[in-house]
Amino acid sequence: MRIVLVSHYAVTNIGDKILTECLCKILSEKGHSVRMVDINGRIKINENDDEEIRIIKRQHSDHIRSNRNEFISHFQENLSDCDLLIFAGGALLDVLSEYTAEDINTIISIAREKNIPVAFNSVGFFGNEVDNEKGMIIRKALLSPNVKWISVRERKDDIAYLLNGEKEFSYCCDTAVWARELFGVDSSLVNQDNIIGINLINKFAFSYFGNSVFDVSETYFKIYSELTDLGFKCNFFINGPAVDHNYANSFARKYIIPSEMFLLDDNTRSGKAFLSFLSQFSLVISSRLHTSISCFSLKIPSLCLSWDRKMDEFLGILAGHIGL
Questions:
Q1: Last residue of a domain, one of 123, 143, 172
Q2: Which of 202, 258, 265, 285 could bridge across to 243 with cysteines, CB 3.0–4.6 Å?
Q3: 22-72 pLDDT, tens per residue?
């Protein structure tokens, strides 16, 4: 079967790459032909691309993004030989940002014209208010007759509200929980030298959902100071987004932390490379969902600074699984 996976695959956030690559490996190992496509029409920049290629890809992405006819043509081409379209997971049920809800509806409409069945695999929400214009666009898309399967990783009440009993859905875990096995990362190589990773997220994340009073910078510095006072070595890292990279640099300047404590990449890591990177730590202070999920997969202890219900739900499922 020829399958197209659609997600935020070409963004710099490693979480979207991990979940998409995990599902791709599962399907490929079952003998299916799989192609990954970014939901907003972006072209993925690869680790080995030189600067000229990166500029060309960014320009191509901007062209697709800025012209609706180009966006439609892009997906008509990518779905031309497709037997099944799967929205691969992540925060695709986006009721907050400008484009994604309409993009989902457009992509499903193209698939419907081509008689292509559609599935949603372990998708999540971005934004709290589902009863708005974007939420109704997503509802329309989900209720399209060619959408044959819907599974969510979080917020069962919200998806039930959107579907209003007109279509069934399932509740399941994020595909990245199997990342260690799928990527073949040997968890026995996990570092035992008491190196602690502190996963930074930009300070604005905690204000997205009403936590504007919380000063995460002060918390990060307090964690770092107390751990280093106890004799632990700490390294700061990010999951890829430019806004996190900029925040990490300003955080280092503000608290005068040596630059060698920051392990910041060029935003092109693959899922496997990120898991291998995490394996150097014996403990991780996590600020992003897929850092927590990857640590779980690697069996690395982690503590989570939660800023979103999706993190609370994932940790709650784990707590229930081990009987806490």
A1: 172
A2: 202
A3: 999 999 999 999 999 999 998 887 777 788 888 888 888 888 878 889 999
